[in-house]
Fold these 2 entries.
Entry 1:
Amino acid sequence: MNRDEILAKTVTFVKEELAAAEGAHDWWHIYRVWKLAKHIAKDEHVDMLIVELAALLHDVADSKLHGGDEELGPMKVQDFLCTLPLDKGIVEHVEQIVSNISFRLSLKTSPKEKMSRSAELNVVQDADRLDAIGAIGIARTFNFGGHKGNALYDPALKPRVGMSFEEYKTDSAPTINHFYEKLLLLKDRMNTKTGKRLAEQRHKFMEHYLEQFYKEWEGEA
Ligand code: NI
């Protein structure tokens, strides 16, 4: 099995795993993160196969897909990787990335875990965070909020910055609050040069969007 065949088999596996996922975390999210990761990786010293495999598999391990179970996803990824002709080092590295990637998990990451960050993790994490902001980020956020049955906006409910891991997991606040609780914080959490530059542009777009949103809410625009 060559490199292309390994990636093709991974794409098939991920598409199957995410077949029932809602629109913010479906195959097309993975597709965009995969493309972005390859784009960002061009200026970084990384193993491209590790970046691509981790980008493709990063959400299969997400507990959102497994009824909140934090262990099941990483195990599925592990079982799948064992079916591929890969070195043990590559398998372990990909597993480490997919279990460290999420924003919610980063809220409870210990300083020791942070020390073990690799260049490949930095690239995939930036790609995943970029897909949470900008025009696509706005679309995904409202889609996910709608999926959970949350309101668009409630002027009386103020955003809560600095939520704990548990609070974040069960959040049912209006979708606009999510911009302040997560999306607008991401530009300062980027790891790579390319990631920072793209995040800056997407961040400005969201600020502009919010300005217009409030004007329209009050019938002023
Ligand atoms: Ni993701």
Entry 2:
Amino acid sequence: MTQIQHTVSLKALNSFGIQAYAKHFSVADSIEGLQSILNWQKIQKTPLLVLGGGSNMLFTKNYDGLVLQNALKGIDLVKEDDQYYYVKAMAGENWHAFVCHCVEHQYQGLENLSLIPGNVGASPMQNIGAYGVEIKDVFESLEAIHIQDQSIHVFNHQQCQFGYRDSIFKQSLKQQFIILSVTFKLRKQPIYNTSYGNIEQALAQMNITKPDMASIAKAVIQIRQQKLPDPKNIGNAGSFFKNPIISNQLFETLKQAHPTIPGFPINHTNTTKVPAAWLIEQAGFKGFRSGDAGCYPLQPLVLVNYGNASGAAIFELSATIIDRVNRQFNIVLEREVNIY
Ligand code: FAD
Ligand code: NAP
């Protein structure tokens, strides 16, 4: 039977460690259980928020509705051909544990995405990415249930409309579907991507001359542990802002005034991606702290909760940063974290 709890603290369920309460709360560990929770929600006419690992959200107030934690489990090799393994993971599987499973079984392609917090179900939401790899590079399809009529749909690659930290589920289908499972198309033969960031340097430090999946995963884990705050110790949701993509024209103008501005031209477009961390540092926020809300000293793109910051205080800091960066560089930073 479906269990609905009332007035539940979400503090341990969001990586920012923000104290906020859900008016109603339930956990779905089967599709039937999930359908029965959706029936209850429909009868109650209460708003619904789907929760995975809570590592990409900021609660600025209590949630006046039902928070549904997706805890569907299971990993299956559903098909293979000459070149690929097709691996289906249920939405409630922990992302990093799933990556480790793939590394162990030699299903190639996810190693650069090691140690990203959260669950499999949220991974297509913002087309998670790191060190030159995005979900879209290895995505085959996903299954999702429509919240209103409970019909189950399969979305292929094209239908997901993946973009930079973006998909159709953050745009026109926002809050309409619950992702149930994701199927990945993972290579049998390795094509390693070590050119990005300092992966090669980390491999050299580990004395690895012939990298494989496991050593790349290890290098990525090591780099991330050195640079990013562990939410177990310091509350955060990773990069708070997206890295802005601006016209080449604006980039050239900015370069004249700020010759050291870094930029990565995006192929076949007239645009350049500028690291938001650089802009935030130039605006004077690296290591900034006001009460328990701050900008992480080693990576200013990460806003942090040093203890008892409210979600509203973190949000306010983000608004101040947006304003300052805009005034200094004529670039409006966009929040990557989902605000509730
Ligand atoms: P949640 O925070 O629970 O949810 C995120 C959004 O997806 C919410 O809107 C929620 O309603 C929705 N949602 C969740 N599950 C489902 C579902 N099954 N169906 C429908 N909607 C759903 N992200 C990157 O892209 N790259 C990184 O390298 C990266 N590094 C990070 C490092 C740290 C230290 C932290 C804290 C975060 C990092 N992130 C990164 C952000 C975050 O880990 C990812 O966005 C992750 O995919 C969020 O997963 P989650 O399960 O925690 O989602
Ligand atoms: P980094 O390696 O210092 O890079 C800083 C910025 O430069 C990022 O905007 C990155 O873009 C860009 N960049 C670096 N090398 C590039 C290249 N060869 N080609 C194109 N763009 C390049 O960044 P970091 O903060 O240490 O993070 C490392 C990786 O993990 C990045 O991919 C980052 O996106 C990811 N990450 C994401 C989150 C999150 O919450 N979303 C949190 C932590 C780390 P991209 O961001 O597009 O890669």
